[in-house]
Design a protein that fits this description.
Elements: H1 10-24, H2 27-31, H3 45-51, H4 54-62, H5 65-71, H6 77-89
InterPro entries: UQCC2
Subcellular location: Mitochondrion matrix, Mitochondrion nucleoid
Protein name: Mitochondrial nucleoid factor 1
Length: about 90
């Protein structure tokens, strides 16, 4: 019939598989390695995991909005990193 859904034909499934297989195997991650595992903030993956944890996000919700804006205000990279380290080093309450 002409009313087949997209992706149900074997040829379409094969094409989709061929497109997704390199992503699943991290082909491009290994082909184009990053020189450093950092981002614009200069934080490490470990620091990002801590920031994005449920406890930390709940703490951000409780913070005053103006304090959050100060944390994300433009500054030199080394100052931004120091500010994040100060925030992360405080014990969770």
């Amino acid at each position: 019939k002409g009313d087949k859904q997209q992706g149900t034909e074997p040829k379409a499934c094969d094409q989709m598989y061929e497109s997704l297989a390199p992503l699943h195997s991290n082909y491009y991650k290994h082909k184009y390695p990053r020189p450093r595992d950092t981002s614009f903030s200069g934080l490490s993956v470990k620091e990002y995991k801590l920031i994005l944890s449920t406890d930390t996000l709940e703490g951000f919700q409780e913070m005053d909005r103006s304090k959050l804006q100060e944390k994300f205000a433009p500054m030199r990279p080394e100052e931004k990193h120091k500010a994040w380290v100060r925030v992360l080093s405080r014990p969770c309450t």
